[in-house]
Amino acid sequence: MKSSNRTQQQVAMATLALLIAAVSGGCGSKPSATAPKIEATVVGNGIISGRVLLEGEPPPERELPLDPNCKESCKIHHGEGPRYTRVYVSKDGGLGDVLVTITGIPPQPIPPGTGPLVIDQQGCEYIPYVSACQVGQTIQVKNSDPLLHNVHTLPKVSGNKEVNKSQGANAAPLEFVYHKPEEFLQFKCDVHPWMFAYVNVMEHPFYAVTNEDGTFSIKGLPDGTYQVKFKHRKAGEITQQVEVKDGAGAVEVTLQAKE
Predict the structure, then answer these.
(1) CA distance 119 to 126
(2) CA-wise closest residue to 209 among 53, 93, 98, 126
(3) Residue 112 DSSP SS3
(4) CA distance 44 to 42
(5) Which residues make beta-bridge pairs with 238?
(6) How far apart, in Å, do the first and last CA atoms of the chain sit?
(7) Can you tell me the distance from the alpha carbon of 151 to that of 164, in angstroms, rounded to the nearest whole number?
(8) How many whole angstroms from its chain centre is CA 176?
(9) DSSP state, 199?
(10) Which of 164, 201, 209, 223 is deepest in the core (most CB within 10 A)?
């Protein structure tokens, strides 16, 4: 009889202890923090298209000091001939590698179906040289060269982490994600010191990087008036007001070549 009572007391005490722990845990713990869901507040079918022109004569590009292994890989990807730096890229008066973005728009979600931003290493160069993606979007860096590279990111915005990873030939792609907006975030290769790329991390999808002839288009906008910023690493920046009416808006701006 005493043994039975003792067992019942032990069970009761254990149950009480569990209840106290559950109540204490429930009262003392904080709910897990979850990132607020970003809603799409800018939705439409309009397009802003245009062109960036380059005025003035840019300084000459310098020949890349490719080593023998890089030269062999360069033949595979780009053909014979020397390769040059890509400070200014222009064609028919247009200016490439200009970041075009609409200012004053609150953060927007990454559009459904958007894949990673892919950057490849070909002939000891990053392709593309200037690109853009959204906050939280995966940046995937491939190595299509038959030799070793390393991918070293050099963000300047607090909260964006510096990363330095080696990547051998035929290795799996490296992946990076940045959670703070930053313009011209630098990617470099410490093995080949001429190798650079610049990634613009944006808070919304309304951006573009101009083609070699300076043309661009930004889609998905409702009718309205927008402030559009054009920024080049060397030629500076300019902001232009553009109206989208009946689903279309057009703009042409000129940047000045500088040393």
Answers:
(1) 7
(2) 98
(3) coil
(4) 7
(5) 230
(6) 98
(7) 6
(8) 9
(9) E
(10) 201
H or E element that contains 27 = helix 2-28
Contacts 24+ apart (CB under 8 A), 162-170: 164/190, 167/121, 167/141, 167/143, 168/143, 169/143, 169/145, 170/143, 170/146
Tell me if 52 sits within 8 A of 94, measured CB to CB.
yes
Chain-centroid distance of CA 87 in Å reads: 19
Quote the CATH superfamily of domain 106-205: Cupredoxins -  blue copper proteins (2.60.40.420)
Every domain of the chain and the residues it spans: 41-105+215-259, 106-205
CA distance 252 to 239: 11
Domains 41-105+215-259 and 106-205 alike in fold: yes
Closest alpha carbon to 200 in 115, 125, 119 = 119
From first to last of its 259 residues, the chain has per-residue pLDDT tens of: 444 444 444 434 444 343 333 333 333 333 334 557 899 999 999 999 999 999 999 999 999 999 999 999 999 999 988 999 999 999 999 999 999 999 999 999 999 999 999 999 999 999 999 999 999 999 999 999 999 999 999 999 999 999 999 999 989 999 999 999 999 999 999 999 999 999 999 999 999 999 999 999 999 999 999 999 999 999 999 999 999 999 999 999 999 999 8
- Does the bond joining 128 to the residue before it have cis omega, within 30 degrees of 0? yes
Whole-model pTM: value is 0.85
What is the architecture of the domain spanning 41-105+215-259? Answer: Sandwich (2.60)
Exposure of 178 in the CB half-sphere (CA atoms within 13 A) = 30
In the three-class reduction of DSSP (H, G, I as helix; E, B as strand; rest coil), residue 132 is classed as strand
